[in-house]
Amino acid sequence: MDYLKEVELKEIEVLSMYLKAIADPNRLKILALLSYDCKCVCEIGEVLKIPQNLVSHHLSRLKEVGLLKEHKRGYFSVHHLNREILKENEAKLKNLLKRKPKTKIDSSTKHNCLSK
Question: Is 60 exceeded by the pLDDT of residue 26?
Answer without folding.
Answer: yes
